[in-house]
Amino acid sequence: MSTPIGHYTGESNYNTAKMTSSAKLSTPAFSGIARERQALAVPIMLCTSVSFGGFLAGWDVGTIGGITNMESFSQNFGTLVNTWTGERRLPAISVGLIISVFSVSSAVGGLTLAKLGDYQGRKFGIYVALVVYCVGLWITLMNDTNWIQFLIGRIVTGLAVGSTGVLVPIYLSEIAPVTIGSTMIGSYQVQTTLGILMGNIVNYFCHQVLDNDVRNMSWQLPLILGYLWVLIITIGLIFTPESAPFLVVHKNAIPDAKASFAKMNAISRADPKTLEFIDRSLREKHKSRKEDKSQDILDWARSRPRLGLRLLVGICVMSFQQLSGINYFFYYGTTIFEARQMDSYVVTIILSLVNFLSTFGGLYVVQASGRRPSLLIGSIGMFCCMLVYASVGSFAPRGTASYVVVIIATCVYLIFFATTLGPVTVILVAELFPMRTKATSMAVCTSFYWMCNFLVSFLTPIIADQIGFLYGYFFAGFLLVSAVFAWFMVPETKYMTQADIDAFYDKVR
């Protein structure tokens, strides 16, 4: 789930590396870093609460597949398939539509609703998205027999999650303390994986405890809990200042920008770092007004330094993440493994736990190995795992041994994803764009991400019903293309400031 970053990330990483090296040289330097980290405790807490916006996207991924697979959901929303037993089932195409329509509306929300963040502020845009999310939940809960109404509720909540998917990472990148910018932005991905894990656990509880007597609460409880996540994000927003870059570039509110930057970096308003930030932001603002005069979007795409090419790279990287098949497991894990007579709800918890724990390693791997190597290693590793998964699942005799191999291959696949493609996609794509085009570029990239998500989530129940595990070869093919694309088209942005990235693309002809 995916999204934008402040244009100081590369510089932040460089500063962090310099500070770490200096700390090894002297005890006073080490003590200074310790004091700085202590001072940043409050900003880190605020960023963490805001990053909970990623939890909303993960929560949907972790719950919706299990919800549609519950007996109570099928009995309430399905069509009658057995007059003797009264059994009801939703057709595969209806299940695919319920799950996938969320992605389409998320793409629309990222392109439209997220625009409020440019005009009224990042916080205001997120607040509006949270209100829309609550309305969507209410629509899904108010009727327990009409699946079309449930579908409409999914569309509304999708608009909100698509908007937060753009605004929250942008907001995080602009408010995060300079020295730990990448880590705070990466926390969005951590929250997403946490949402998936918690969603799977709640689904298991509902399936085991509440689903047996076909009570509506078994599928309604995961939806009701959405209001709690909204409350947590709202509390964080109340105490977090508006984005300092937004205040400078869009509102020209210099005193407020100084206060915001100083608070989130635990320094004074008169600190040289604060003044340097204001000066840099003003220069970026004037540069934007001078260079961004085109009226045609094609003129903008052709403008230098190669904004069109950068947009293409961002679109492809975001799309390949979805076409890797990651949500094939998370959306339909309960259905996939149930077909093999496994305890599908337990298996999905195992997979999401592996994904969540591995994400922490991803924050280190992306920073240590770089953006481009992470994409290459991740794509190749996941390609190999998907080949094993598809081959064993399709051709090996059914039995405990083949089940274990399939689950192990899936777990290793998830480790590769969580340590490489998962976090690096958000960080790399957000670093590509200058401040003046960041919101628009990220919205376009995110919309392609959601459209690919839609294709996977809509087609999976239909295709997998026909070819089963052979579907894995489809994702393996895209992972191979992803590796080739990363080798030839993706630049290494580690330790690069926005000026460095502009200079790099300015040389590309």
TrEMBL record:
Transmembrane segments: 90-112, 124-141, 147-172, 184-205, 217-239, 311-332, 344-366, 375-396, 402-430, 442-464, 470-490
Source organism per UniProt: Torulaspora delbrueckii
GO cellular component assignments: plasma membrane
Keywords: Membrane, Transmembrane, Transmembrane helix, Transport
Gene Ontology MF terms: carbohydrate:proton symporter activity; galactose transmembrane transporter activity
Compartments, as annotated in UniProt: Membrane
Family to which this protein belongs: Belongs to the major facilitator superfamily. Sugar transporter (TC 2.A.1.1) family.
Protein name: Major facilitator superfamily (MFS) profile domain-containing protein
